[in-house]
Amino acid sequence: MASAADSIRDYGVAAPHGPYTTGEHQATQDIDIRKDMSENEASVFHALLHPDDLYIAEGTYWADLPIGQRVKFVGQVDAQEAKAEASYFWNMFKNDPLAPIGHYFRTCVIPGAGLGLEGYVLFSIGNVRPLLKAAFPDCWGTHEICDKTWTQAVDYLEICGIIVGQILVGVVGDWLGRRFGLIQDATIMFVGLLMLTAAWGVTQNGWVICYVWALFFYGIGVGGEYPMTATAGMENAVGSGKVSTRDDRLHRGRKVTSAFLMQGWGQFFNQVILIILLLIFHGGSSPPYSKTLAQWTYRVSFAIPAVGTLWLVYFRYYKMKSASKQLMLSKKKSNLYGRKWMMIVGFLADFVLFMVPGFALEYFTSIENIHGFQAMYFLSSFFNQFGPNSVTFLVAAEVFPTPVRATAHGFSAAWGKLGALLAAILYNYIDIQTKFYFVPWFGLAGALLTLLFLPDTTGLDLKEQERRWTYIRAGREHEYHGIAIHWKHLSWWERFRGQHKGYDAKLDYEQKIDEMRADWVERQQHKFSEKNGWEGAEADEDDHADVHNYFKRTTPGTPTGPEPMMAPKAVSENSSGDEITSEKRAQQ
């Protein structure tokens, strides 16, 4: 046991209780101390492996608490984090009133710029179509001079391109890296926008065919944005150390969905720009629209995002840090609502909001009741966004292992677009009443599939999820005992199969220490080959000083002489990717 004098040396803050200096450290009074550990070392391991945003002081996981204590714990963690962030943003505002805007652009706008640009373009297709139909009625309206099939292909060839991109770019992202995939996406979208802007043909039907295939090509780049943006955003939020960061656990979902939010901004700005262009080229007057002015309006509306996409290519190539950190490593919160219930509620709400007017369509579309129909339409859109649309984007990036994350996310997104493709084709052949009979059941099916088969990753340590996948890929799934198989995080199907029975908190704690020791030995052996033996192997960026000294003292084959004087890192600092976390520490 180390004496109090020996432990006074500054090791930084051993979150959440501070350094041991008295011999009666409060942090270790309620935890088990291994016989080969000092109290200070036990406190450090407890803080590393049982962080205070997931475990109470006694080492109990938050999901193992009774419901009352669980609600209290979650409320306390959320309140502490909200207070810390409010203080951070207030200090930022006092130093520079425009700094919060700059922070939003760095953390949300730029990571989601690709989704914002593709949201602008994709939703402009439906907005531009009425204009083309009004200006070219013989082609887009009565189909006298244009093939009706090609005009309808605008709806589904675009989706086919997205499906191809989701699968193709997802595979490329896992094979060549996230950064390459992101640059490739932006380049394809830029070329596709040039094709859309310059689309032409000898006849109007030839122009439509050129326009449709330009949409298909652009869709390939759009499809790649889904897996690449989600995967890169997810992995850049995770620290590089063995132990994950508080930011990963509490704010991982916010980082990914904030990027996805840019798709909505793209839709909004498309509406605004089209209105402005109509005012410029048509003077704001009523139809009819001339062919020339319609051409100017739709082509300029595509040229504007082309400029933004060209900047995106430049930024991703020259300015963006590597987005493949976790992929390279693999190759070499607690929120009571949660992702799963958010998606189930969204699906069920859509089911009800489509079912009600579907079986009384004539009543709700009458003049006196149309406002009720509008309210249900807007609510269904809200629950779709505040549910399946955003959660599927997030969860698909969380549940798959790192080496195939982009590929698997791409396949998942492609299945989603198959639904959109089915609707685009089917809607050409059924009337409005039949659509309302047909659509609601997909919401009910989505809710049931989510309930039965989707694991709940809310508050789950992403590195813990990856740790479980490591055991599974090694054929040792039964040897894993961590929180990734806690019943709270498993689907109903996984619980039915009994996977939660392997959960053992104490055994997992010992297992994690053994895994940390194995990683430490591997790093020391690497440095041993480059330096003068074990004495030259000091703690690196993944090691806290007490962790390094404990493993050095207790691992067979290592010297037990005087410990080297090191400048150790605080326990809580594990290379967080979140600017709020790092800058809050700098202000303290």
TrEMBL record:
Keywords: Membrane, Transmembrane, Transmembrane helix
Keyword Acetylation: no
TM annotation in the entry: 182-200, 206-224, 259-284, 296-315, 336-356, 412-430, 436-454
Entry's localization field: Membrane
Pfam families: Sugar_tr
Alphabetized GO MF terms: carbohydrate:proton symporter activity
Low complexity biased stretches: 554-564
UniProt keyword Transmembrane helix present: yes
InterPro entries: MFS_sugar_transport-like, MFS_Sugar_Transporters, MFS_trans_sf
UniProt region (Disordered), positions on chain: 549-588
Gene Ontology, cellular component aspect: membrane
Membrane topology of this protein: Multi-pass membrane protein
Protein name listed in UniProt: Major facilitator superfamily (MFS) profile domain-containing protein
Native source organism of the sequence: Cochliobolus sativus
